[in-house]
Amino acid sequence: MALRVFREISSAHLQPNLLSFSSAISACEKAGEWQKALYLLEATSRARISPDVIIHSAAISSCEKSGEWKRALQLLSTMPDVQIHPNKVSYSASISVCQKAWQWQWALHLLQLMPAAKVLPNEVSFTAAISACEKAEQWHWALELLSSMSRHKLCLDVFSCSAAMSCCEKGSQWSKALYLLRSMPHRKVAPNLFSYTAAISACAQVQHWKFAVQFFEEMVSRGICPDNVCRNLLLDSISNQKEAYALFKSLNVDG
Question: PPR repeat ranges (predicted)?
Fold first, then answer.
């Protein structure tokens, strides 16, 4: 809709303003049309319009959704050249695109740059960086970032905790993954399916099936419906065939 209106404005030889550019670039962002978003950003200078931080952040977000991490970082780095100070949205979108592109070192670098740029990281920034570490199995960094969130007095949520848990599980740090699950209620965070699946997967790696069953039953008692991935991980945690068969029958009856 916004793009259509923008085209109509242009075809009618009317001068687009900052708002029309902003709406059109935001529409490109939502549609994942990063090339069009960057074209419109460049068109602002031809229209003698000074783009603001909102337009730049929307353009970065369009790159994020398309995995164009190098272009996103280029946009972020050139913002000061046009007297635009990046904000939390700009940095968080850039960290997120690095996370999706498996560029965990760049994600950490951007997070570390934020205080020097007088931009305080928020929950979104940290969670994106933790997720980047999860993909790269950098569990040391994931735990450090989680601790850093507490030091910054930021609220931990189920996404940041679960991403750190999954990172520990992938890094064969099963005891740390279980500790994080057990610490979530103390942090006033309710575990979800992803949290319990990460814990059960960690137990399956070392065949601690009793812990796995305990977490599975706890999850069900909380009203969280396990999926097939979670059920299969539970069965994988059991080395004894008779016990696995008995559990398999009970899962089929219950589920």
Answer: 17-51, 52-86, 157-191, 192-226
Burial label for 234, CB within 10 Å (0-12, 13-18, 19+), is buried
Taking the CA of residue 93 as centre, how many other CA atoms within 13 Å lie in the half-sphere pointing to its CB?
Answer: 28
- Could you tell me the residue range of the domain that residue 20 belongs to? 1-62
Which residues are CB-contacts of 239 (< 8 A; sequence separation ≥ 6)? Answer: 207, 209
Taking the model in full, what pTM does it have? 0.83
The answer to whether residue 75 sits within a structural domain is no
88 lies in some domain: no
E strand or H helix at 138: none
What are 214-247's pLDDT values in tens digits? 999 999 999 999 999 998 898 888 765 556 556 5
User: Whose structure tokens read 């460049």?
Assistant: 42
Number of domains in the chain: 3
Domain end position, chosen among 42, 62, 82: 62
Rounded Cα distance between 157 and 124, Å, is 10
Rounded-to-5 percentages of helix, strand, coil across the chain? 75, 0, 25
Per-residue pLDDT tens digits for 112-157: 999 999 999 999 999 999 999 999 999 999 999 999 999 999 999 9
